[in-house]
């Protein structure tokens, strides 16, 4: 696959963010530790929509988004030790870090200050990164993940961002037998968070939503209790949950003060979604309840491998709708409008 054979669907104007244009682009130079991947599928993430609409600020244009990539290795650099041509692999939202800082050396490479995102980012050389709505990608083997044989490529794709983003805080905060977990929001992230919490053995999984519309889905996915976040919802749950993951992609419905009162002392509220708008403010009295409030970004490669193993063993699968990659505009519009149930995956259809 030569440089000229890398093609993808790009956005050229944030005011026309549903209009994708097929362009050619130059990938990073092929390095000794690089893996080159022919992309077969790419999940559509809320991050893609935040970026192409300008919700997170002005992006580098033209821009090819997509960081839930699944495909086949086409070649590897001479120093690559873990992959070979023909392997089934995935790439998530990160393609590089410094590789030698304390964070990188202790399975926290996603927090490295020199993180390079899969798209809308730049390597130190100045080369811009382009994402998975495309024919191929090159990146360091540290950020390539092996896909178990019993996971379909299209079902594995959403795990590399949505799956890892919820799996990491679940395991880092001790989800397992004896724990009670709350999940806020039932969407691309939330529907996987419910499944992983169940697979990790949580005793109770309380699913919070603003209406009853997704109640049946929440219980089918593994939730043990469904709570509509209407006035006073927190009263019956005070000091009962060990962990809450907030996957809600809008700030207006996130009742932070109420949610935090449902945590036991030492319990944690972890934000994994990144809405465009500022979150509601917290009252000082909420912060002196012995609870903790914070966030989590992506996950490490070590956690990605653990996640894929668990998904393989427990049959965890995202609920997906597959569309041709040329329908990217339709997919991002539906994500923006909250119509996905619960992840769109784009299938490669670019003539190579």
Automatic annotation (TrEMBL):
One Pfam family here: ADH_zinc_N
Cofactor(s) the protein needs: Zn(2+)
SUPFAM superfamilies named in the record: GroES-like, NAD(P)-binding Rossmann-fold domains
GO molecular function annotations of the record: oxidoreductase activity, acting on the CH-OH group of donors, NAD or NADP as acceptor; zinc ion binding
Keywords (A to Z) from UniProt: Metal-binding, Oxidoreductase, Zinc
InterPro entries named in the record: ADH-like_C (IPR013149), ADH-like_N (IPR013154), ADH_Zn_CS (IPR002328), CAD-like (IPR047109), D-isomer_DH_CS1 (IPR029752), ER (IPR020843), GroES-like_sf (IPR011032), NAD(P)-bd_dom_sf (IPR036291)
Domain of life (superkingdom): Eukaryota
Residue ranges occupied by any Enoyl reductase (ER) domain in the UniProt entry: 15-346
PANTHER family: ALDEHYDE REDUCTASE (PTHR42683)
Stated family: Belongs to the zinc-containing alcohol dehydrogenase family.
Record-given protein name: GroES-like protein
Organism: Gymnopilus junonius (Spectacular rustgill mushroom)
């Amino acid at each position: 696959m030569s440089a000229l054979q890398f093609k993808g669907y790009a956005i050229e104007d944030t005011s026309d963010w549903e209009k994708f244009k097929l362009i050619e682009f130059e990938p990073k130079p092929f390095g000794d530790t690089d893996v080159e991947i022919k992309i077969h599928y790419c999940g559509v993430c809320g991050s893609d929509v935040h970026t192409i609409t300008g919700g997170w600020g002005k992006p580098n244009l033209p821009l090819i988004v997509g960081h839930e990539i699944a495909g086949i290795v086409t070649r590897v650099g001479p120093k690559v030790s873990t992959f070979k041509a023909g392997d089934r692999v995935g790439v998530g939202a990160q393609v590089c870090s410094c590789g030698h800082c304390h964070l990188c050396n202790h399975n926290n490479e996603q927090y490295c200050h020199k993180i390079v995102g899969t798209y809308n980012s730049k390597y130190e050389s100045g080369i811009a990164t382009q994402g998975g709505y495309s024919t191929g990608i090159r990146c360091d083997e540290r950020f390539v993940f092996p896909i178990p044989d019993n996971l379909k490529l299209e079902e594995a794709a959403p795990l590399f961002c949505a799956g890892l983003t919820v799996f990491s805080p679940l395991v880092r905060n001790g989800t397992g037998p004896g724990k009670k977990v709350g999940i806020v929001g039932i969407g691309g992230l939330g529907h996987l968070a419910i499944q992983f919490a169940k697979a990790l053995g949580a005793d109770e999984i309380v699913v919070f939503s603003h209406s009853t519309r997704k109640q049946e889905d929440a219980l089918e996915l593994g939730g043990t209790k469904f709570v509509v976040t209407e006035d006073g919802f927190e009263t019956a749950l005070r000091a009962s949950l060990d962990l809450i993951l907030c996957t809600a992609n809008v700030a207006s419905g996130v009742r932070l003060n109420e949610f935090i009162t449902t945590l036991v002392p030492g319990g944690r509220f972890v934000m994994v979604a990144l809405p465009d708008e500022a979150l509601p403010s917290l009252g000082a009295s909420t912060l002196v309840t012995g609870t903790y409030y914070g966030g989590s970004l992506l996950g490490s490669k070590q956690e990605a491998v653990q996640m894929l193993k668990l998904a393989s063993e427990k049959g965890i699968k995202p609920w997906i709708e597959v569309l041709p990659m040329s329908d990217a505009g339709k997919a991002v519009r539906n994500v923006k409008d909250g119509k996905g149930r619960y992840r769109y995956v784009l299938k490669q259809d670019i003539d190579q």
